[in-house]
Every structure is written in structure tokens, then in C-alpha cells.
Design goal:
By secondary structure, this protein is mainly alpha-helical. It is built from 16 helices and no strands. It has helices spanning about 1-35, 65-75, 90-105, 105-135, 135-145, 160-175, 180-190, 200-210, 230-245, 250-255, 265-270, 275-300, 300-315, 325, 330-340, 345-365.
Length: about 375
Amino acid sequence: MNNKNNFSSCKIPILLFVATRLWIFAVTCLIYGFWGCELPQTSPVWHGGLQKENIFLEPWRRWDALWFLQVVREGYHYRPDAQSNITIFPLYPFLIKIIAGIIGNQVLTGLIISNLCLLLLCVLLYRLTSEKLGGVAAFWGVLFLLLFPTGFLLSGVYSESLLIMLAVATFLSARRRVWWLCGVTGMLAGATRLTGLILFPAMVLEYLSQKRFRLRECHRDFFFLFLMPIGGLTYFLYLYKLTGDFFAYFEAQKHWGHHLTSPIFSFFYEAAMDLNFTVALDLTSAVIFIILSILVFRRLGAAYGFYSLAVVLVAMSATKLFGLPRYVLAAFPAFMVLGELIRWKPLRWALALALAALQVYCMYNFINWKISF
């Protein structure tokens, strides 16, 4: 019976993955084949290590993917007066470098890694949501994540799928009380993106809440959680050795216009800009995910709510909301709650179709160098 249930809990998310990825890759090939434009001439990074152009790979060699690939080819370098690739955390490009030695094509390797991580993410998220909110919420939560306007990046040469898969695995391990695994997956998430470091306080909160905040009931397994900051801290120590500045990562972010500020200031700074699709998507993403994250506290508990809200607020604390529709993908508990929140079936399908239409529009602009996420 358990084996049958496990198979059933895997079959649905696998079908969702396969259906939406066939859709994504078909649309990207179609867009690039009929309307795709050439690489811009604005920066030498765009032309570093050109792959053989083809209709399947070329749509994905865009924007930040080129920075990931530059790290793979050249390693890290830092320029205090210009954009530098040290804003890329090491785990994802490291995996590409290792596996590309076998496959031979870095873009294809990145796509394979991202989509394998996405497949595992779908299975883990479906299982976690089913246990917390039920199977219906699990189905729609996974589908809404996959169809979100920036959800196509989960299949691209970006670290999002790896990060979110590790984050979901961390929460699922905590639910199973397998704290050593929780510590390991959290550590790997911290080596993937800065967002991964948010998992440490979230898991401390989850551990204590499971003990009803009775410190006497804490055991030695609590110390496994202190593995989690190691991934991120090791990278910052490496940057200190490379640049002489432990906080060089944050200095490098300034060349993308990211300065540490309050989320409220960032929101109104963006709201004061001329309204266009990108600004509207940024502001809408901020409002919706703050609301959903607040609902997460009630439906899923303090650790989930803290993590989801922290992901959104940290992403909003950089002067501009540039890239926010991509960064909120990591706030996976919000998608879990969204899957449960909308209970009228026609409205669910209407939302799914609307998200899919926006996703196509985002893909078109992304492939044609009009919108970066």
C-alpha cells in the first residue's frame, strides 16, 4: 500500500512536469525560430564562449545564463569599477563544469541539471503540500509554480530549480525530523544562492516549534542545523581571499543598481517609475507574494511563513524590484497556499490560462533581449 501511495504521489507531479516542459520547449523553439533576434553588441560577456547556434539551445543562452556560463569557463574575477561574476554563487556553475566534461556542451548541461532538479522539485513539493494541505492543493500549487510568468526560468541555465529543490527538501526533511539531511540540503542551498541562507533561521524556528519551544527537549540533532550556514559562509571566505573584502558580493551588486535599502522604499521607488509591463509585473508580484506569505503563517506555520516572507522582503531590499518576479519563485510556500486558496475550479483554470499567457509573453521578451529577470 505504501509503495502504491508513493507511486501515485510521484505520478501526478511527473505528468505536470512533462506536460509543461514540452510546452515550454516547444514555445521557446517557435519564438526563436520565427521571431528570435541576434545577440546584442553591448557587452563582451554576451559573446564569450559561443555555442553552436541551434533552435533548441540558443533561446536559453540569455541574460544571467551567460554569467553562469562565464563562471564555468573562466572562474571568478572581480572588478571594483564594473560588473563582476562574483554575484554568482558556486554550486550551480560547479555542477555544470563537472558534468559538461562528460556531455561536452555547457548550455545543454545546464538545461539537463535544471530540469532534473525541477523534476525532483515537483515531486518533493507535491508530496510536502499533500501532507500539509491535501492532494488538490498539491496539484494546483505545483501547476501554478510551473506556469508562473517567470516559471520557464526553472528550465533554463539558471540556479532557481536547484535552489528551490534544495529548499523544499530541507523543509520536507524537517517535517520527517531527519535533521542531518536538513542540515546538508540547507548547506547546499546556501552555496547556491544568498536566499539559501534564509533556511537556517527558518529551520531553527521549525525545530523549536516542533519542541513547542521547550529548550529542555532539544537534543544533539539540533546541532545538525549549524551545517546550514557553512555553504554561504565558505563562499564569502573565498571572496575575502580573492578580493580582500568579506562583503565584496554586496559591493559587486551595486553595479547592477542594487543597494541595500528598505522594502518599502524599493516598492515606492519602483511605483514612481513610468508604468510598463515590467514595472507592473514587479509591483504586482511584490503585493501578491507579501499577501500570500502572510497567509502562509496561518496555514503552514511560523517557519514556512518566515521563510516565504523573508525571501520576498530580502529580494525587495535592493533599491529596485528588478528581477523580483524571478526571485519570488523561491517563496514556494506561497504557491502551496495559492493552490489551496482558490477552490472554485473554473477560477483555478482561468488563473492557470492567464499565467500561461503571461509566461509566453515573458518568454518572447526574454529571448529577444527585451526583458531580463
